[in-house]
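Quick one:
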Amino acid sequence: MDNRATNCVRERNDVLVKTLRGTVGTTSATRSATPGWRDPRLWIGVLIVAASVVAGVRVVGGADEMASVWTVSQDVGIGAELDPSLLEARSVRFEDAEDLTHYLSVDEPLPAESDLTRGLGTGELVPAAALGSVSQTGVVQVPIRVPGDGVPPSVGVGSTVDVYVSDESQARRPAVLLLDEVAVNAAPGVVDEFGPGGTRQLVLAVPADVGEELTLLIAASAAGTLTVVGRS
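Output:
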């Protein structure tokens, strides 16, 4: 009986040892695998970084493409001299760098000949081609005096007007159109003299080739028989 008991104990121990050995032999430590170059997560990360770099380069490059050019702060008529006090700087991005040469750059001095060969609107960029000599403008600057009630209050620098002459002694005779669509280059305030309505001075850009109309304009201005009609 003792031998049998001893043998049973040995058999159980052998089974237990084999079982433990098998368990230990099949158990291995688990390590996180390092992503290889074929891992799609790696390429997605690379694309995100590349897109960020490209976007940053575009932003910095776009800032470098901005150029400062001159604009006018109010309407300026043809024939007027471009006064520096009317200029305002504005940063503009040009699609083509060559386009900058067509406008007045803030970094360059103003041209010696700065009479406008065409009118400019408020906020408009100043084209280099719009400046020239007095003879290139094709107009002459003519000051006229108009009764205070003979010109709309809205007429000012940059306005386009028609000028009529009338004869007060012949009320039934229609006024005669003397000049049409001429630009106003200066418009001082009303002067309180020559009657209760006062008078107002305007400087008109009159075409140099109008001929007789110019002498009639000056005579009618002196006589106080002019009426100005605003167009814009």
